[in-house]
Structure formats: structure tokens, C-alpha cells
TrEMBL record:
Keywords noted in UniProt: Membrane, Transmembrane, Transmembrane helix
Pfam families to which the protein is assigned, alphabetical: 2TM
Compositionally biased intervals (Basic and acidic residues): 136-145
Annotated coiled-coil segments of the chain: none
Region Disordered, annotated ranges: 126-145
Origin superkingdom: Bacteria
Protein name: 2TM domain-containing protein
Length: 145
């Protein structure tokens, strides 16, 4: 991109695509960071509720207090979210979506062409010879001789 294009505010389509992809990735990472901060805050609240305020102190599952299970379950969701942001979206990001989109369109176009060939073969369009009566033909009704 030239400095003149930048001054006019014109962005070529490739640059625009790169910017949109970067913005989408930043939004995903920001969402993960927010999720992690909320997880830490609520984990601390769960621990304080149980240990300092005796909230649900009698509730246990397999010998572990409820807050441990809540924190572990939430941590599992954090791990899934992290995998989604850093692995799955990297492997199946915008480029992968575009390749899949192009592949499916090509597949559909191929099927349409095959169907059109079949229709043309089984139901050919009438030609001019078969639709217009011939003059001066013995079988023609329009003979004006």
C-alpha cells in the first residue's frame, strides 16, 4: 500500500482481509483473557465462601469440598476455551473456512454441470427444423401451391 492510498483511506482487499483476521484473533484472545480473570476472581470467592464463611462446608463430593469441584470444572472450560483459541482456530481459521467454501462451491458446480448434461441429453430442446413447418413438403398442411 502506498502512502498516497493510506492518505486517501483506501485499503486493498488483501490488506483489509488481514486486518479483519487480526481483529478477530485479538477479540478471541481478549475473550479468553477475560474468561481467565473471571475464573481467578470467582475461584478466590469460592474459597473464601467455603473456608472463611463456612458456606456449604458440609457439601462434599467424593470427599472433596464443593468449591474444589466447581473450580476444577471451570478450569476444564478454561482449557477447552484455550484449545479453541490457540489450536482449533489456528487450524480451522479463516483460511480453512475459505478453502472449504471454495471446495464445496466447486463440488456443487460440478454436480450442476452433470445434471445439466443429463437434462440436455434426456430432454433436448426442440430445434428450428422440428418446430417450423416446411413449405412445399407433401406432408405439410401449409402448402399453398
Amino acid at each position: 500500500m502506498t502512502s498516497e492510498e493510506r492518505k486517501k483511506g483506501k485499503i486493498d482487499p488483501e490488506q483489509k482481509l488481514l486486518i479483519e483476521n487480526a481483529q478477530r484473533r485479538i477479540k478471541q484472545k481478549k475473550g479468553l483473557t477475560t474468561h481467565f480473570v473471571v475464573f481467578i476472581a470467582f475461584s478466590i470467592i469460592f474459597i473464601i465462601l467455603n473456608l472463611a464463611l463456612d458456606f456449604g462446608k458440609d457439601i462434599t463430593l467424593f470427599g472433596w469440598p464443593w468449591f474444589v469441584w466447581a473450580i476444577l470444572l471451570w478450569f476444564l472450560f478454561i482449557i477447552i476455551h484455550t484449545i479453541n483459541v490457540f489450536i482449533v482456530n489456528k487450524l480451522m481459521g479463516k483460511e480453512w473456512e475459505e478453502k472449504q467454501f471454495d471446495r464445496l462451491i466447486a463440488k456443487q458446480q460440478k454436480k450442476i454441470i452433470e445434471l445439466q448434461k443429463r437434462v440436455d441429453k434426456e430432454y433436448p430442446l426442440p430445434t428450428e427444423e422440428t418446430t417450423t413447418p416446411r413449405l412445399n413438403h407433401p406432408d405439410s398442411e401449409n402448402n399453398t401451391l
